Amino acid sequence: MSSTPADPDHGLDFRRDPRNGKRNTTPFAKAVFGATLHALGAQGASAALEAERDWRRHYPRHLLALTEAQLRADGAGALAAAGAGLDAAWSGIGFERGGRTLALAEAMRAPVAASLHTHVVRGQGAAAVERWRLPLRGRWLEGAELEDQIDRWLEAGVIEPGHARALRRVMAHPEWFDLSDRHVALLGAGSEAGPLQWLARWRANIVALDLPRPAVWQRIEAVVRAGNARLLLPLRDGGGSADWSELAGCDLLRATPEVGAWLCSLGVPLDLAAIAYADGATHVRVSLAMDAVMQVVCEAQPASSRMFMATPTDIFAVPARVAEAAMRAFAERRPGTRAADAVLGALSGGSLLQPHVGGLLDAGGGERAGIIDALVLQQGPNYALAKRLQQWRALLAWQRGERVSFNVTPSTTTTSVVKHPALKAGFAGAHHYAVEVFEPATTNAISAALWVHDLRHDEPAPAGHPLLRLAANANHGGLWRVGYLPRSALPLAAVRGLLGGTPA
Question: Which range marks the domain in which residue 56 is found?
Fold first, then answer.
């Protein structure tokens, strides 16, 4: 795999291989994960990683080995490994400008002076803060109806108890949604999965970053003007344009230092949301660009916070109760189902309907935990790496005492996901395996509410292994409690989705 940007001599990108001049992402990924394994002393897993010849097909086994090694290490060792991985990622990326390649940290200290200017747009809608409600399959839930829905999700294993507690807490504190005292910075403000629509109704000071595309900014402006928020956005030097949207925004990959400098110039702590998305190798680059910007801002304004929207289609260490539920689901299959599974497994050479969780591991301090592996091959190793970098940054920020909002949000039928035919069909058939897939409007509302919760509520750091904190408030749609390894059931879910469609 390689990365080929439109302008290869400008911006944040993988370093070129001196042997062939290409920007290959597989060596980069192996170096990052290898650094983490080395820090853990996992020599066998490190050697297997280095020897891997088919990275795109087999990367899940190496991420699983890495997560196991981190979970078996004590908390300090797991955090040190996360730091080693991030250090390797920063070292393996460069920032090219003017024919020179700078280290990312060096580039972030040398922005082009005053290249971005602030433009303000004010909402013209009703001044009152809109109450939070949950849109779900064409209805709006609140009060007792929403409480009942949360109970059903809990009972079905769609959400974890921490997720339910957070939603109930924000329901009990409607005053939390007045965000006139916060400056929320959306790195990827136009994201389909982002919280812009809600923030615009909650009097927030919205600091928006997105690509220099007038249509994107016109849409963002329309959302803000219909609400009661204040929008701050960057304008590029250009002069002469009567339409500010022609100068709005910038490419985060090509103006990474300038974005960091502009955010710092606002002179206030920022609640930074890393929600930008891109396909393939570009997603890794974007994740590192957001990480670099967050680092600069948090150093300049230590009261700033970070927000990450994690995916359930990843590998996580989970409490024993979650792993045991997956093991029970596999062990308690009906005899007819077992027989059919055995036939399908044999016909597929063992690739279909594999068990999800093999057992529990010692997480230290007498604690037992499991590891769920919900990686989906169609999303690719670059996606997995980009999301892992965010996991590591959240862990290290928590260790430093920073405020971090890290929530696993459910599989959602966003455009970026359902454009993959296999994923679209798999989502359509997911209910046959007790997995709930959410509509974008529902996920947006949940994510916005959880962010408000994490900004307003000081949750004490939980005891136990730090990796388990990442999964504490998860809404995984039931994916983590499925008895089958999810990617070993996805082909059958896709077939059933094509034949039977989605549930009513």
Answer: 1-110
Asked which of 88, 110, 132 is the last residue of a domain, the reply is 110
pLDDT < 50: residue spans in the chain: 1-6, 8, 502-504
Domains of the chain: total: 2
Give the model's pLDDT for residue 501.
52
* 3 state DSSP class of 93: strand
- State the Cα–Cα distance between residues 225 and 211, nearest whole angstrom: 20
**pLDDT value at residue 474:** 96
In this prediction, residue 504 carries a pLDDT of 36
Backbone angles phi, psi at 12, to 5 degrees: -85, 125
- The verdict on residue 72 lying in a domain is yes
Within the chain, what is the greatest distance between any pair of CA atoms?
A: 74
Residue 299, domain member (yes or no): no
Task: For residue 376, give Cα distances in angstroms to 30, 280, 312, 379, 426.
Answer: 19, 14, 10, 6, 11
Q: How far apart are CA 390 and CA 50, in angstroms?
A: 23
Map residue 209 onto helix, strand or coil: strand
> CA–CA separation, 210 vs 439, rounded Å?
23
φ/ψ bin of 169: left (φ > 0), alpha (ψ from -120 to 50), beta (otherwise):
alpha
Strands 139-141 and 134-136: antiparallel
pTM: 0.93
- Pick from 110, 139, 160: which residue ends a domain? 110
Residues facing 97 on adjacent strands: 100
Dump the DSSP string for 136-190.
Answer: ETTEEE-HHHHHHHHHHHHHHTSB-HHHHHHHHHHHH-GGGG--TT-EEEEETTT
Q: For 252-400, list the strands marked E by DSSP.
A: 271-274, 305-310, 315-319, 361-362, 368-373
Looking at the domain assignment, is residue 217 inside a domain? Answer: no
Strands (E), 42-162: 93-97, 100-103, 116-122, 134-136, 139-141
CB 67 within 8 A of CB 372: no
Is 393 in a helix, a strand, or coil? helix
- Rounded to the nearest 5°, which phi and psi values hold at 8? -70, -5
Residue 491 in any domain: the answer is: yes
